[in-house]
Amino acid sequence: MVFGYIIYGLIALLIIVTAAGMLISRNTVYSALFLVLNFTLVAILYFTLGAPFIALTQISVYAGAIMILFLFVIMLLGSEKMDWQEPLKNQRLVAGILVFLVLLPAAVLLISQTGAVPPLTTPDPEFGSPATIGNILFTQYTLPFLVIGFLLLVATIGAIVLTKTDTPRQRIEAMESKKD
Question: Which end of the chain is more exposed for a tag (fewer CB within 10 A), N or C?
Fold first, then answer.
């Protein structure tokens, strides 16, 4: 029982450390790698909670596809070093105050507890299984699933149209003018 709390606490501490490392790092590539590690640790937390499908989705979608895209954009733009000028005056002070205001209720809640730690409960064996998620997704949430799929398709087509700047004919003409 206590071992489980230690493992969860250690994973949560590592998640906080990697998130802080992502925010503090001056190198954008390192920040992206800290975020990959953070996503992976969150997936491990999901896996220990008995949700393997969500854990694998977390790794494949966030740590895999999205972060590879982020790294590609960082490398493509050549912005390995971030500019440390604050765009807003007193931005760090305001951020510190907001963090304090967000963490204050959590601290009050923890302090006000009677000291009794609730026991860890074992989830239902079907909790988080692909069959259960698929059944719920395609019965109760069919319309939102289709709408999200349509929006992703439109976004993909829009990105392709917006990034396409020249025709193959223009590329051939540009290559021929470079040869001369």
Answer: C
Residues 103 and 74 in one domain: yes
pTM flag (> 0.85): no
Domain assignment present for 104: yes
Beta bridge partners of 62: none
* Phi, psi for residue 160 in degrees, rounded to 5: -65, -45
Give me the chain's average pLDDT, please: 81
Residue count of the chain, please give it.
180
Residue 132 CB partners (closer than 8 Å, separation 6+): 126
Q: Are residues 116 and 168 in the same domain?
A: no
Measured on CA atoms in the order 111, 117, 118, 121, is the torsion positive or negative?
positive
Domain contains 87: no
Q: How far apart are CA 85 and CA 129, in angstroms?
A: 47
Query: Which among 71, 62, 60, 73 is positioned nearest to 31, based on CA atoms?
Result: 71
pLDDT in tens, 144-164: 889 988 998 888 888 777 776
67, 53: one domain: yes
